[in-house]
Amino acid sequence: MEDPMYSLQDVIRCDLCETPVPPKHCELYHVHLCETCVEKHLSDKSKDHYIVPFKLRGSIHKCPYHSTKLCILLCKECNVSICKICSSFSEHVQHKKEDILKAMTEKEELIRKDLQELDESIYPKYQEAATNIPVQRADVNKHSQKLTTALDKQGEALHTEIDTIIQGMKLDIDDMDAQHIAAIDRQEVEINKTSTEIKKVILDLKRLLDTSDVCLVSEYTSRTEEFRSFPFQIQVTLPTFTPQEINRGQIRQQIGFLSELVITYPVGTLLDEPRILTDIQTEYKYLHCVVSE
Fold first, then answer.
1. Parallel/antiparallel/unpaired status of strands 97-99 and 51-53
2. Is 50 found in the same domain as 9?
3. Which residues of the chain have pLDDT under 70?
4. Are residues 38 and 71 in the same domain?
5. Is 184 domain-assigned?
6. Are 236 and 180 spatial neighbours (Cβ–Cβ below 8 Å)?
7. For residues 110-141, b (16+ Cβ closer than 10 Å) or e, as one string?
8. So what's the pLDDT on residue 83?
9. DSSP-derived secondary structure letter, 218
10. What pLDDT score does 85 carry?
11. Same domain, 89 and 53
12. Fewest CB atoms within 10 A around its CB: which of 25, 65, 161, 244?
């Protein structure tokens, strides 16, 4: 849309000399001024004036506390625009102040610098970081799968070792069973052999009682004492199994150790130093806790 100041039908002129397209404007008296007439307008010292570039006409706000005054100053400590009365009779008296147009120029320069840095440097970094988030999530899953695989492998190794030990102990039991059976077999052989001899002696004794051969009876030697003691009874102490109490901590040591997750936030994402936001006066001397709602 064409600016009415440059319209061929209605050219804005200096209110004092009719010079077209005046570059200045007095906010207090709403007067358009060319460069030559600015000094003439300011020469009236009995009145307040505030000259601004023409494009900024109407941009200076009126004071909400003093309706006839314009906010032509900026309180640098409070970062608010104030009028001259406020600067002299309010909480802004001891604060640093500067002309609102000068402050605006400085802020515009700051805005341009901030815009350039945000648009060309900071925002692209955030975009790059946001793009990397799915990759990080995928890496978390990939790393977890790697850890799980390592644990499964260690578990299989431990199971294999335990199975090997158990199988070895079972073979030991089989070997002891074989030894025990062999001892029983030897005992059976000796018992059968002695039993056969005893049966023969019994028959011989019966024949001696039936014979009248004095010499045979006189030559008899008793073997009863030999057979009375039973030397073939084996003494066996059977093997036992005493299970060890399962110590979960020792088992975990055998499995291995899983290190803790450590997350380090970059400097600047959180407050580097504590900052006082509000000073609350209370009747208490010692404060134990604060609850906010």
1. unpaired
2. yes
3. 1-10, 231-232, 267-293
4. no
5. no
6. yes
7. eeeeeeeeeeeeeeeeeeeeeeeeeeeeeeee
8. 85
9. H
10. 80
11. no
12. 244
User: How many angstroms separate the CA atoms of 125 and 115, rounded?
Assistant: 15
User: Which CB contacts under 8 angstroms, 24+ apart, belong to 47-55?
Assistant: 50/26, 51/24, 51/25, 51/26, 51/27, 52/24, 52/25, 52/26, 52/27, 52/101, 53/23, 53/24, 53/25, 54/5, 54/22, 54/23, 54/24, 54/25
What pLDDT was estimated at residue 3?
52
Using left for φ > 0, alpha for ψ between -120 and 50, and beta otherwise, residue 219 falls in alpha
Q: At what angle do helices 123-210 and 248-255 cross, to 10 degrees?
A: 120
Domains in the chain: how many in total?
Answer: 2
Note the pLDDT of residue 132: 93
The Cα–Cα gap between 199 and 180 comes to 28
Rounded CA separation 113/121 (Å):
11
Tell whether 45 and 11 lie within a shared domain.
Answer: yes
Residue 77: give the domain boundaries. 62-95
Between vectors from CA 260 to CA 257 and to CA 263, what angle results, nearest 5°? 155
DSSP tag of 263:
-
Q: Which tens digit of pLDDT belongs to each residue from 222-232? A: 888 888 877 66
| DSSP sequence for 167-183 | HHHHHHHHHHHHHHHHH
Instruction: Write the pLDDT tens digit of every residue in 96-136.
Output: 888 888 888 888 898 999 999 999 999 999 999 999 999 99
The whole-angstrom separation of Cα 242 and Cα 217 is 61
CA distance 75 to 92: 7
